Amino acid sequence: MDGRKVMLLTGASRGIGHATVKRFAREGWRIITCSRHPFPEQCPWGGGREDHIQVDLGDPAATIEAIAEIKSRLDGRLHALVNNAGISPKGPGGSRLNTIDTDLRSWGQVFHVNFFASIVLARGLKDELSAAKGAVVNVTSIAGSRVHPFAGAAYATSKAALKALTREMAHDFGPMGVRVNAIAPGEIETSILSPGTEKIVEGLPQRRLGQPREVADVIWFLCSDASSYVTGTEIEVNGGQHV
């Protein structure tokens, strides 16, 4: 085992996850990724293929089973866990699924990926996180605090639950030396954006979309010593959209 710091990241293949991989790789970290997809051919960092674990986080049993595989890749220490994977199902033509339209099975799948996987991984790897005095970052959303024109009800409520989970985890993991925080991105220029987002951008104080690297920089801050006394908080990364 080498002496590099190690991060476990879910949802690494695109957008915020992809930018986060590049940010931490630039700092010399080793990154272990989890995704339901195979490792992408267009890999943004060296050695990524060997550190990719294919697992469907929507399947509770598969997520629990993956813990042993992840542990086998570690030398007993995990410096950062970034729970970034998220799904947001849409209706016909990309329409928003509200509380009335969303199928119960879709609610379950969304919560397994967006919410339950985060605590399953953190709890399963608590000894390794504690040994490294590591950090957990849960990626929530501005949709977790208000009705959003595009994000569906299941997605929004899963992100609100993840914010509450961040508070509870910070309380429980703190005595182990592990900090737990969340970031809530707004309109970030990724493939998950819906048509019509430009109308939202017109009303933002900064009048532009956020870039994935700008979110990755905040994740980096929360996993670095620069935030050593910050835990149990959610940082808004949205160009002032929340005001």
TrEMBL record:
GO terms for molecular function: oxidoreductase activity, acting on the CH-OH group of donors, NAD or NADP as acceptor. Pfam families: adh_short_C2 (PF13561). It comes from the Bacteria. Residues 5-215 form the Ketoreductase domain. Belongs to the short-chain dehydrogenases/reductases (SDR) family. This is NAD(P)-dependent dehydrogenase, short-chain alcohol dehydrogenase family.
